[in-house]
Amino acid sequence: MRILALETSCDDLSWSVVEDGKHVLALTISSQVDIHAKTGGVVPEVAAREHAVTAIPALDTIAKDVDLKTIDAVAVTVGPGLLGSLLVGINTASTLATLLHKPLIPVHHIEGHIYANWLERDAAISFPSLILTVSGGHNDMYLMKDHFSFVHVGTTLDDAAGEAFDKVARMLDLGYPGGPAIEKLAYAYPDLTSDLVFPIAWGNKDEGTFSFSGLKSEVRRTVEKYKTQGELTELQKAEIAHAFLRSVTEVLSKKAFRMAKKHNAKSVCVTGGVSASTPLVDAMKELSSKENIAFFHPVKKLYSTDNAAMIGAAAYYKVQKFPDYLSSFTPLLTPHLSYTLGGEADNA
Ligand code: KG4
Ligand code: ZN
Question: For ligand 1, is residue 142 a contact (CB within 6 Å)?
Answer without folding.
Answer: no
